[in-house]
Design brief:
With 130 residues, this protein is an alpha/beta fold. It has a single domain (18-125), classed as 2-Layer Sandwich (Beta Polymerase, domain 2). It contains three helices and seven strands, in the order βββααββαββ. The strands form two sheets. A five-stranded mixed β-sheet has the order 3-7-4-5-6. Strand 5 (66-70), helix 3 (74-80) and strand 6 form a beta-alpha-beta unit. Helix 2 packs antiparallel against helix 3 (74-80). The longest helix has 14 residues, at 31-44. The two termini are 22 Å apart. Residues 75-114 are annotated as: Disordered.
């Protein structure tokens, strides 16, 4: 942002920052996969966070699964799961190629609640302005 002619750094007020923050490109997420994730975030009306090897922690291989943190209520999370890319690895412990965590309900009986570790690689797909 420019204030007069002097560049001014404006902190992103949505809170997505820290040493682990990456863009999809920096994490090595293909444009096609990034588009699918972005479309899912828009459909769900909530940000989708990619973590783990697909976010660029250095352990990526062709069979790596995808790890997602979904931020909204259960109904919304479930509505987008099938829209998201999957790997050929053992996600969900069943060979589905992806794992889902949520940051919405710490009392979930599914034990899928997690807090984003901002010091580890992560990629956020925010809602696009319409």
């Amino acid at each position: 942002m420019l204030a007069g002619q002097t560049p001014v750094l404006v902190h992103n007020s949505n809170g997505w920052c820290g040493p682990g923050f990456r863009t999809a490109s920096e994490a090595g997420i293909s444009p096609n996969d990034a588009k699918r994730i972005q479309n899912a975030a828009d459909k769900a009306g909530q940000p989708i966070v990619v973590v783990g090897s697909r976010a660029g922690n250095g352990n990526l291989n062709p069979t790596s699964d995808w790890d997602y943190i979904l931020t909204g209520p259960s109904r919304t999370r479930h509505s987008v799961k099938n829209s998201l890319p999957r790997g050929t690895g053992d996600g969900e412990g069943s060979g589905r190629g992806r794992d889902f965590y949520q940051s919405y309900n710490p009392n979930s009986p599914r034990k899928d609640y997690t807090v984003l570790e901002r010091d580890k690689p992560y990629v956020v797909f925010e809602l696009r302005d319409r």
